Amino acid sequence: MMRMMNNKANVKIFSIVIAAIFIIGIGALAYTQMATPSGNSGNSTIGVIDTSRMMSQDNPIYISAAQEYMSYQSQLQQETQAKIDAAQDDATKQKLAEEARQNLAKKDQEIAKSVQDKAMEAAKAVGDAKGLSVVMTKDTVLYGGVDITDQVLKKLANDAKK
Question: Fewer CB within 10 Å, N- or C-terminus of the chain?
Answer without folding.
Answer: C
